[in-house]
Amino acid sequence: MGNDRSKTMQRLHLAITMLIGFAGTRVARASPTISLDPNPLDFFESVVGQSNAVAYTVTNTGQVQLVVMDMQITGPDADQFHFEAAIDPFCGDGRDCTPNFKLAPGASRSFYVACAPSHPGFFTSTLAVKSNAATSTIPLTCTGDAPASMSTLVVSPASIDFGVSFAEPAFPTVLHRTLTVTNTATAPSEPVEFQVFVPRTSGNGSFSLPGGPFGFVGPGESQDFDIEFRWFGAVVSTAPVVLQSSDPSQPSINVPMFAETAYGRLVFDDPPDLFSFISMPAVAAGDTSTLTIKAHNGGDFELAMDASGFIGFGGTGELQGPTGVVSLAPGEAIQWTLICTPDGSEGAEDGATGTVEFDYFTAASENDLFFLFCPIQRAPLTASASPSQPGHAANRTHGLGQTDAPALAPTDAGAGSPSEAGGCSAATPTSLAPLGLLALGLLVPGRSLHRGRPRV
């Protein structure tokens, strides 16, 4: 029995020894673990001369206390990185953070590293964290962008020309031009941000940017801007398009721009001061009178027109020269010859009447209409003429209702006018042009002052 008891005690002792051994082994195997986040640490794009700070976190993911002895930035581009003391002074602003710190199981601590590129480029380094959980690392990557500069922008075309267009609102009144802006900078470089400003015009027109005015062009990239021009009459604009940087310290870019909407305009040079009435040189009935009309396009746009002339009463005539559709460039001259033969027929003893018309297709007005009078020349009255003779001017009544009467020289010496033998002096009849024009209107009622023509 004693022997059994001894065996039992031995077994109990062995069990207790084994339990103590297992417990000691379990405590000895427990060790700290560390987590670094994010991993890798990417600073993306940082502008040269500026500092871009990013946070990373150290976490104790183990069951025992974590002790960090050192954190250091190493690698080929380490000089482009540093700890950011402005945010957290614990590590200072160098590349080696030496103060020890401890983290209980589950605890975390954040730190800040900055990328401050001194020149453009792509930079890589390593953040090494030494602790009682061995040494862990985080890759660091950063892009150093050159600062944005308006000087790297190139515009095409170098100037914008809308040309000269007809100002008539009935014609198409919208034109478009494309301005392409290219950033010639090479990567890595910061995108250039700017805004496009189009000039104002007079109340007869306007410029706009249907696609918007804002530009954002990265290195090697291009952006198109649609410039629209509308008008409602005559416009002349020489103001530039302006590209203005979002950075007020950057210079602006001016792109020359020209736009004009104008009219063609026929200016009469000879006879000068020609208005609504043309009186030709007087000739005898049956003879031909001629008159040259000289003009030029005094407007700023091509003038398309046709010219015509006719005698509607008391004779024949025509307008000789360029007829039909004729085009005149600005400043270009032109001339016509107007011929007329009054016939002296009944009711037209004073001369022939008609019209001359210039119809415009591309001009400020539709036409110029002139009333035409071709007078018959009268012989001076003499003393041999007798009122009793047939056809004497004193007894001849015109079909237009006016009687020619000789002007007699007064015999009264007190009148102050000399008199010759016979007591008569010659007198020229008063022109009957107004009555002739009235007769034209009565005899040619179908003549329209504004003949309808298709416009070109």
Descriptive report:
The chain is mostly beta strands. It has three domains: 34-145, Immunoglobulin-like (Sandwich); 150-262, Immunoglobulins (Immunoglobulin-like); 266-378 and 438-443, Immunoglobulin-like (Sandwich). It is built from two helices and 30 strands. Strands 2, 4, 6, 7, 9 and 10 form a six-stranded mixed sheet that branches.
Task: Give a short overview.
This protein is mainly beta. It has two helices and 30 strands.
CATH architecture of the largest domain: Sandwich
Q: Into how many domains do the coordinates divide?
A: 3
Q: Give the count of helical stretches.
A: 2
Q: Unreliable stretches, pLDDT < 50, 5 or more residues? A: 22-28, 385-456
| First-last Cα distance | 138 Å
Q: Helical percent range?
A: under 10%
CATH homologous group name of the largest domain: Immunoglobulins
Blueprint of the fold:
Elements: H1 2-29, E1 34-37, E2 41-47, E3 52-60, E4 66-74, E5 81-83, E6 96-97, E7 101-103, E8 108-115, E9 121-131, E10 134-145, E11 153-156, E12 160-166, E13 174-183, E14 192-197, E15 205-208, E16 214-217, E17 222-231, E18 235-237, E19 241-245, E20 253-255, E21 257-262, E22 266-270, E23 277-279, E24 289-297, E25 303-313, E26 315-320, E27 326-328, E28 333-342, E29 351-360, E30 367-375, H2 433-443
Parallel strand pairs: 2-10, 12-21, 23-30
Antiparallel strand pairs: 1-3, 3-8, 4-6, 4-7, 4-9, 5-8, 9-10, 11-13, 13-17, 14-16, 14-19, 15-17, 18-21, 19-20, 22-24, 24-28, 25-27, 25-29, 26-28, 29-30
